[in-house]
Specification:
Layout (H helix, E strand, L loop, with lengths): L1 H20 L18 E9 L6 H24 L2 H6 L1 H7 L4 H4 E12 L2 E10 L1 H10 L12 E10 L2 E3 L3 H12 L3 E2 L2 H5 L5 H7 L3 H10 L4 E13 L9 E13 L5 E13 L2 H32 E7 L4 H11 L5 E10 L2 E8 L4 H9 L4 E6 L3 E6 L2
Parallel strand pairs: 4-6, 4-7, 10-14
Antiparallel strand pairs: 1-3, 2-3, 4-5, 7-8, 8-9, 10-12, 11-12, 13-14
Length: 388
């Protein structure tokens, strides 16, 4: 009993000591964490129909509408105008429904009646990273065309003078390109126009026809060509009685924007087999497999070399300046497309597609603009500074 009392007393002293040395931790004592999320600033305004005899609701509706316009400007950096229209319901449901979540804070810069409408202007700070992530999740993010082009594959097959509809060469080449990260036009779409003269012309090697069909299905590049196979009996040992499959494969890679040929691929070969069907299939597979690997490795770089330029522009202090610069770039007739690839701390990287000319030609045109200084120009990249 005595030992039990001694142990209890010791435990009491121990607990008391721990309690006496315990310190209260307050939130103010925790060091502030550095803010890693980045924002862009933008001005936006919107008009709403005023609510009769309720200015409070009218003002709130005006602010909400202006917020949506601010987010819409941010969305426009990552989504094409065509997508904004064709996917308006999806974007409205998945993006604009979360407008408040994208805006860190805002200031009302103006409000009041403008004719029959209540007009509200705001200056907002927007979480661009969140918007980009959500748009990418919808598979609407503008991709780098040069590195991730959409490809249409049309390869005709002829065996012993008879056109085939197996599509084995198309399937093999398409599968390899898909595995390499390229996007493809669905073959079922092409089957729907199987009888059209334009598709026949493309398969026969007509670049303009291929470009026309490719643009119709949203392709950046068309892979067109033909594999011609002939079979014959072999009379040389040890293959006497076998069938030899002899083939020639010719392919063109065409840029759909203007019908220019990016590259040409040709290959011949032969394969022995015990049957006519086996020989034809084996040689077709061998040549198509070799072509698919070459195409997967070359299409992206060839497209980059042909007409895409990386344009770095600074300083662009806010989203308004970014939007204004993008619109200005689109006024150049030598450009067919302008895409914002990144925007960070006042510096924007654009991917511009040339309709004609070279990067150096375009750099010279930029220099003619007031307040624009090109600080670096190469074969496929330009750096420019907007002077005050």
């Amino acid at each position: 009993m005595r030992k039990l009392l001694i142990i209890s007393a010791a435990l009491s002293l121990l607990l008391y000591g721990c309690g006496g040395s315990r310190q209260e931790v307050r939130m103010n004592d925790i060091p502030a964490q550095p803010e890693t999320e980045k924002y862009v600033e933008v001005d936006a305004d919107a008009e709403v129909v005023p609510v009769p005899e309720n200015q409070l609701v009218t003002r709130r509706n005006g602010v909400d509408a202006a917020k949506k316009m601010a987010v819409e400007k941010a969305v426009g950096v990552y989504v094409t105008g065509q997508q904004m229209i064709s996917k308006s319901l999806l974007i409205s449901e998945k993006i604009f429904s979360k407008t408040t979540g994208y805006i860190k804070d805002y200031t009302v810069t103006s409000e009041g009646m403008n004719g029959l409408f209540w007009k509200t202007g705001i200056h907002a700070k927007i979480r661009m990273g969140d918007i980009k992530t959500d748009i990418d999740a919808l598979d609407l993010l503008i991709k780098t065309t040069a590195g991730n082009p959409r490809v249409m594959v049309v390869i005709g097959e002829v065996v012993d003078g008879v056109a085939q509809n197996t599509g084995s060469a198309e399937t093999l080449i398409s599968g390899t390109l898909l595995d390499a990260g390229y996007k493809l036009v669905d073959q079922s779409q092409l089957e729907e126009i199987n009888g059209e003269d334009a598709l026949k012309a493309a398969a026969a090697g007509d670049e303009k026809a291929a470009a026309k069909i490719g643009k119709r299905f949203g392709a950046d590049v068309a892979v067109i060509g033909k594999i011609t196979v002939s079979t014959r009996a072999m009379d040389i040992e040890p293959y006497k009685g076998w069938i030899s499959g002899i083939a020639e494969l010719n392919i063109k890679v065409v840029k759909t924007t203007n019908g220019d040929v990016l590259m040409v691929y040709s290959k011949t070969g032969n394969v022995p087999d015990i049957s006519k069907e086996g020989a034809a299939a084996s040689i077709s597979k061998r040549l198509s497999s070799g072509a698919s690997k070459e195409l997967a490795a070359s299409i992206g770089p060839k497209l980059v070399e042909s007409n895409f330029i990386k344009l770095i522009v600074s300083p662009l202090p806010d989203l308004n300046a970014l939007e204004k610069t993008k619109k200005w770039l689109k006024t150049f007739e030598s450009l067919t497309d302008v895409v914002v690839r990144s925007y960070d701390e006042g510096t924007a990287e654009f991917e511009v597609e040339l309709a004609y000319g070279s990067a150096l030609d375009f750099a010279a045109k930029l220099q003619t603009g007031k307040g624009v200084k090109v600080t670096e120009a190469g074969g496929h990249s330009i750096t420019a500074v907007l002077e005050k």
